[in-house]
Amino acid sequence: MPSLKSLAKDSVIYGLSSIAGRFINYLLVPIQTAKFAASGGEYGVVTNIYAYTALLLVLLTFGMETTFFRFMGRDDADSRRTYSTSMIMVGTVATIFAALVLVLLEPIAGAMHYADHPSFVGVMAVCVALDAFQCIPFAYLRFTKRPIKFVAIRLFNIGLNIVLNLLYLVVLPYFKVNLLGIYDEQFTLDVGYVFYINLLCTVVTTLLLWREITAVPWRFDRTLCRRMLHYAWPLLLLGIAGILNQAFDKMFFLNIYDGADARQQLGIYGAAVKIAMIMAMITQAFRYAYEPFVFGNSTSKDNPEVLAKAMKYFIVFTLIAFLAVMAWIDVLKRIIAPDYWEGLKVVPIVMAAEIMMGVYFNLSFWYKLIDKTIWGAWFSGIGCLVLIVINVVFVPRYGYMACAWAGVAGYGTAMVLSYLVGQRYNPIAYPLREIGLYTLLAAVLTALIMLVPGQNVWVSTTVRTLILLLMLGVVLKHEGLLQAIRARLRR
């Protein structure tokens, strides 16, 4: 199975870079909160403006990333024209968006409560437009199987961002240095540096992608454009529903929860979720490698068998990761302050929801490969509706625990619907018995891990690690990997 080996290798590369990138990005939180805490509200500005970017990226890319992979993988595809048409489509939408924001900057900034600093809104509008355009060259790197360059550019962008934040928010203020007249002594303007640094990093990233941007002549195919838009618009709805699935609870918790401690409860939930996001890193890494892999082999007669095996290995890998987080929870919880540890009970629930989301992503290829992406919009929409209803009904009584279970219900609904309908239109013989046994074993081992007393961190972590190794040993033996490892060592 050389294709699965390639998928595994790319997943490791993307996975390590994703985890490293997320970890490095965490460094921005203590840097920025330490700098802005005394002035009151500046970090809230950063949080608020960045909250808009996720939804804007979905709107500005309008499903074209997946559409690009689908059309590049066709037998009759003109790859050069498909690539250039994709760049022109996304680039045009992004340019129009940025131009409209800049022309209407004052009223938009006023509506967002930034009338005193409209430049914050303008700078981030340009950033998100460039980020949207970059998704196609980055997708081109993934499709042409160049994960090293993809990862190198991503990590360089993050590293540059960290260095410049340290320089302008910590080093220069400490030494009271006015570097080239850029550093401003007025503390109230420091928050602007965050957005200008982001702009600089985004521009540098665009320049690093210049070879990919100019790799083919820019030619626009109207017929191809219409076909791609027909394929993409349901993916846009799917993306919007996905963002609401991820952010609805955090956006509306303060409006739904009845308690006077709503802000405190939301903070505890948000901090605990950061630990559970390790699972999101894994599913994202798998997605980076999986989309070009599937669409690149979409015409192979062995494709259903490969998809079935890839699903099993994905679930096994995420179950091991789930157990690893639970085994090392006493160590990982130190990422957040002790005041937030009471929210750790949501970590396994949120991780379970992330696994379901990953399974749903794997299942989604049946309708993408037969060009029926409208199904994805229906599944995600129904799942999102379930999540919203559970939040609205149960959060007033059960607080953030209802948020966590709502995610399980929402993603679980979308997952089950996609499987049932997919087996009718494009049946794939997934190894359900093996997957079920692995899941049951992981559930039993999770219960054992949670029963281990935690008075002594090192003792409890050691015992829990031994339980984790039991799962790993079962997988290695059952999948015949121990024999493969022994054979490799004998060579």
Structural topology:
Elements: H1 2-26, H2 28-36, H3 42-61, H4 64-72, H5 79-103, H6 105-111, H7 118-143, H8 147-175, H9 190-208, H10 210-213, H11 222-256, H12 262-296, H13 303-327, H14 329-332, H15 347-363, H16 365-369, H17 374-398, H18 400-425, H19 432-451, H20 457-478, H21 481-490
Helix pairs in contact: 1-8, 1-12, 2-8, 3-7, 3-11, 4-5, 4-7, 4-11, 4-12, 5-7, 6-7, 7-9, 8-9, 11-17, 11-18, 12-13, 12-15, 13-15, 13-19, 13-20, 15-18, 17-18, 19-20
Tell me the structural class: mainly alpha
**Number of helical runs?**
21
Terminal CA distance:
20 Å
- How much of the sequence lies in strands comes to under 5%
Mean pLDDT: 79
Any idea what the radius of gyration is?
A: 23 Å
Major sheet, described briefly?
A: none
Helix and strand run: HHHHHHHHHHHHHHHHHHHHH
Short description:
This protein is mainly alpha-helical and 491 residues long. It contains 21 helices and no strands.
Structure description:
This protein is an all-alpha fold and 491 residues long. Helices cover 81% and strands 0% of the residues. The protein is built from 21 helices and no strands. Helix 4 packs parallel to helix 12. The protein is globular and about 60 Å long. About 3% of the residues have low confidence.
Give short descriptive properties of this protein.
single chain, 491 residues, mainly alpha, 21 helices, 81% helix
